[in-house]
Amino acid sequence: MSLPAASAGAATGVSALLDVQNISLRFGGLKALSDVSFHVRPGELFSIIGPNGAGKTSMLNCISGRYTPSDGRVVFDGRDVTKLKPNRRAEIGIGRTFQNLALFSHMSVLDNIMVGRHHLLKNNFFTGALYWIGGAQKEELEHRRKVEEVIDFLDIQHVRKATAGTLSYGLRKRVELARAVALEPKLILLDEPMAGMNLEEKEDMARYIVDLNEEWGMTIIMIEHDMGVVMDISHRVMVLDFGRKLVEGEPAAVLADPHVRKAYLGEEDLEIEEAAPAAVSA
C-alpha cells in the first residue's frame, strides 16, 4: 500500500494538547489499564497499537469520558477533564468515532452529520427568544455550509440524501468520520477507522486521515490494526499490552523493539522468524 508519508511538521517542544497521567482502569477484579502515561502534541497523528484486549479502546473511552479512570488524570488543553461527561468534552473539542458503527441508521447521511454540530447551537433559555427572532436562519445556513464542506472533503456528495442504514460498510465508516469532523474538534479519536475495509477503502480512508491532520490541522489519536497504515502515516506510536505501556516513540523505532515483536508474534513465532534466514542459507 502506497500512502502519503507522515509529515515531519508535528510540533516538537510544544506543550501537550493532551496529557494522560498515570491512568489505571479497573472493572471489579479486572485491571484494564495499569498506570499508563503519554502525551499528544498539537498537530500530531498519534497511534495506539497492541494485541486484542490490550486496553486500546478502554484508553480512548477514558479520554472521551465514556469511562472514568480508577486512578490518574486526563488533562486536555491545559484543563483537567477527568470528571467531565462525554458531552462536555465534545463541547471543548474532543470528537471520536467508534469501533462499532454508531450512526442513526434511519436518518439521512446529511442529518447524521448535522448531529455532530448539535453542541454548537445557540439554544440556552436566556438567549433563546432573541436568537430565534433574529439569528436562527443565519445560523442554520452556516451549519449547513460547514457540513457541506465536510461532505465534499470526504467525497460523499452522491449519498448525502441517502438513508445511512442502506449504505455499504465502507461508506458508513466514512459518514461516521464526517460526523466527528463536523464537530470541529481540536482532538479527534479514531477507533479502528479501517476495520473491515478492503484495500481500496483503506487507502482512501488513510488519505482522508492524513489530510485532516495536515490540511485541516486536526490532532489525531488513532487505534488501528493495520501495521502498514500505522507505520506509514503516524508521527508517534504507543504500544499497549495487557493494559500496560510497552513502548512509545517514532514508528521505525517502535517496530524494531523486541518487546513489540514479542507482543505481536509471541515468543515461539519470534524464534521461528529469526531462525528462518539461517535455514534458507543452509
Describe this structure in words.
- Helix content is 40%, strand content 21%.
- The chain is an alpha/beta fold and 282 residues long.
- It has two domains: 1-93 and 185-282, 3-Layer(aba) Sandwich (Rossmann fold); 105-179, no CATH class.
- Strand 1 and strand 2 form a beta hairpin.
- Helix 3 runs parallel beside helix 6 (169-182) and helix 5 (136-153) packs across helix 6.
- The relative contact order is 0.18.
- Work out the strand percent: 15-25%
Q: By helix and strand content, what is the structural category?
A: alpha/beta
Low-confidence stretches: 1-12, 124-132, 268-282
**CATH class category of the largest domain:** Alpha Beta
Per CATH, the architecture of the largest domain is 3-Layer(aba) Sandwich
Question: Biggest sheet: strands, sense, closure?
Answer: 6 strands, mixed
General shape? globular
- By CATH, the superfamily of the largest domain comes out as P-loop containing nucleotide triphosphate hydrolases
| Count of helix runs | 11
Q: TL;DR of this structure?
A:
This is ABC transporter ATP-binding protein. The protein has helices spanning 56-64, 86-91, 109-115, 128-134, 136-153, 169-182, 199-214, 227-233, 251-256, 258-265, 267-281; strands spanning 18-27, 30-40, 45-49, 71-76, 79-80, 94-96, 187-191, 219-223, 236-241, 244-249.
